[in-house]
Amino acid sequence: MKNELDEHYVQFCEEKRINFITFHPSYSYEEFVEGISVKLSDAGVKGGEIGYFLKPGIFKEMCKRALGAAVNIPDADIEKQTWKEIYDYYCNNRPVDFNAAQKYVLIIDEINRGDIAKLFGELITLLEDDKRIGKKNEIIVELPASGDKFGVPPNLYIIGTMNTADRSIALLDVALRRRFGFVEMNPDFGILKKEHIEKNESLLKENKVFELLNKSIIAIELINEKICIDPVIGRDRQIGHSFFFKVLTNNDLVMVWRYEVLPLLEEYCYGDYKKINRILFNLDSDSEWITEAKGIQEISNMNIHRMLD
Q: Which of 6, 133, 153, 223 would give a disulfide with 67, using CB separation of 3.0 to 4.6 Å?
């Protein structure tokens, strides 16, 4: 099933029906929607003449492709035409059955890291389902740079991902929050068992890490239970299953625990090593692996067995 999904994803990306972007604090409306860009007459040549042109951003481009597909314009022709040309064609050929149209998806990673007011500007309202092109409360705006009439087609879907463990940005812009449905993605060690441990069982047993990896899952699930009820750490900071997908040998497992999981707990507990030992081993004193004086100790292929028992 996973391979089939991967194949579909690659196919849709090649067909430009899916696009992926990551928000960051310096990302702007001019890059996302449209803005003035610079072009050298001899690209990269020092002293070349500078020209300016209006460049559509990824959001406007995805809207163009989605609307073009809805009015049955061939993909090759969509690429050659501007948003205005496709929108004018739509206006002259209404109504359009958007339910039967090809679906397009814009995936925005780290959506809460961008300045939403700056990125979407006047378009934030257009994301709402009933405000989209052809809907009951359709809203069409005029873009300030190009002067184009603009709306968001209903066959364009926007998926935003965010990590709520980053508390500096955990409070998502309210204007954006009420325009999205939210799906919580908790750690799922069943996926790790199915997609990694079961598929690589022979190799894991040959490398004598199969049993330790299963013990690690039990240990992390117990740790997560303690993290969830801790008033300082909280359930948003549970340790995920993805750390262990790379484990194929004992050394891999040692590296994950020593340099990824334990330092993460050290950060969560603000260097309170007594608290870390309570979470890991139910101890109120130093352990073989974590001490007040020296912090996290080295873990070897031998003593990881004792740590997980």
A: 153
